[in-house]
Write a structure and sequence with these properties.
By secondary structure, this protein is α+β, with helices and mostly antiparallel strands. Helix content is 43%, strand content 17%. It has two domains: 125 residues, Mago nashi protein; 62 residues, no CATH class. The radius of gyration is 28 Å and the shape is globular. About 14% of the residues have low confidence.
Length: 246
């Protein structure tokens, strides 16, 4: 009797195993993304007229090059220590930024002047080298310097630095929200600091992207709330400027 019961139990278990095969859960790849981002296409009609370049191999962002045409369309290329290759992103300057840049280029009279931009008294090569270039109407000129006393040249390079800050920040947080959302609160703090220092070219131009971030549930709530506060501050500053112009 016991032998018959054991035989029956063995047959039952075999049939059950055949009917309900054990499934092995698929392995999850927990390896973080390598941080590489797909480059966005640069407009085909883009023909560079103006360019700015900064290089310092010791800096976290060791290379930045901004090129654009008369309409403010172009590209920004940069290299960071945690990326193996240069990254290129499309660039579209706001009307106010482009207008400001053109005023500075014209005041500098860059194409028709042979004035040396490098300070004869100060050499700060350890801080990096800046190169500005312009090509228009068959004329071309390029000048490199690490420090200048010429007001228009300094203001021009300062504005391009702000443009670089703005578009590199957008790249950084866009990569983080797709690959490492927990990094976004830290990156959002970085933008807040840059805004307070006046180190962003056109905060108002960033509003549509910031509003997108505010509603992106991939971001931690603390980052979304921070984006909302930054939006409110930018909109307040924008209203103040508009009221001042009326």
């Amino acid at each position: 009797m016991n032998r018959s019961l054991l035989l029956f139990a063995a047959v039952f278990l075999a049939l059950a195993a055949a009917a309900f095969p054990q499934t092995v859960p698929a392995k999850k790849n927990s390896r973080p993304s390598d941080g590489k981002a797909t480059e966005k296409p640069v407009p085909k009609e883009f023909v560079p007229v103006y360019s700015y370049e900064f290089e310092n191999p010791k800096f976290h962002v060791s290379h930045v090059k901004i090129e654009h045409d008369e309409d403010g369309i172009g590209k920004v290329t940069f290299r960071k220590l945690d990326y193996e290759e240069d990254i290129t992103e499309p660039l579209e300057l706001s009307e106010s930024t482009l207008s400001h840049l053109k005023v500075l280029w014209n005041e500098l009279n860059f194409l028709d002047s042979a004035e040396e931009l490098q300070s004869p008294e100060r050499d700060y090569g350890h801080l990096g080298t800046m190169t500005i270039a312009m090509s228009r109407g068959g004329k071309n000129r390029e000048a490199s310097f690490n420090w200048t006393e010429i007001k228009e040249a300094k203001e021009l390079t300062d504005e391009y630095k702000k443009i670089g800050n703005q578009f590199i920040w957008i790249f950084d947080i866009d990569v983080a929200r797709r690959n490492q959302p927990l990094e976004t609160p830290r990156i959002m703090k970085g933008l807040d600091s840059s805004l307070l220092r006046g180190a962003i070219s056109d905060p108002e131009q960033m509003l549509p992207f910031l509003k997108e971030l505010k509603d992106d549930e991939r971001l931690p709530l603390i980052a979304r709330n921070h984006a909302e506060r930054i939006i409110a501050r930018i909109e307040k500053e924008t209203r103040k400027k508009q009221d001042g112009q009326d």
